[in-house]
Amino acid sequence: MSQVGSFGVNYTKSYGTDPSIVEFAPLNVGANTKGSWIFVKASAAIAQYAWVGVDGEGDAAELTTTTYASSSIIGVAQVALGSGEYGWIWTGNGGGTSSGIKGKVAASYVAFALINTTGTAGVADDAATKILGGVVGLTTDGGSGSSIELHAASFITKVTA
Question: What does each of the 161 residues of the chain score in pLDDT, given as a tens digit?
Fold first, then answer.
């Protein structure tokens, strides 16, 4: 992985599917005032604010309890990516109230609870399954299953219980 610095992180756009015109390589990392980021290639469509798992090659897919074990890096997409598209994934070290950094949660998520994987691709919850460490949701979901603001004081990690 190589650091590209804050000048290169534009997490609000996808970079298309042609690697010859993409200015970054999968697994490049960057940082800005919103947190830490990793550049990935979507192995399938990824929804905006979906939790994702990234493998050792920089391929990203929406995270589930099943794909948790094979993910080297955990993050959250801040923009939708089509299959084969490239983009930046938030990996922690930031976010917070009014930051705009969000993640999808199930309808029952309660503010400041541990965040766990679910069987639903890209969606987290507070029910105990596979814990995602270092990150917390700042608000309770309104009951419909939506995206809530996130804060992470460190990188998002896999926690073994």
Answer: 555 555 579 999 999 999 999 989 999 999 999 999 999 999 999 999 999 999 999 999 999 999 999 999 999 999 999 999 999 999 999 999 999 999 999 988 999 998 999 999 999 999 878 888 999 999 888 777 789 999 999 999 998 65
Q: What span, in angstroms and rounded, lies between the C-alpha atoms of 126 and 137?
A: 10
Two tokens at 116? 């766990």
Domain residue spans in the chain? Answer: 6-93, 102-158
Distance between start and end Cα atoms, the chain = 28
Report the SS3 class of residue 8: helix
DSSP 11: T
Burial of 143 (0-12, 13-18, 19+ CB in 10 A): exposed
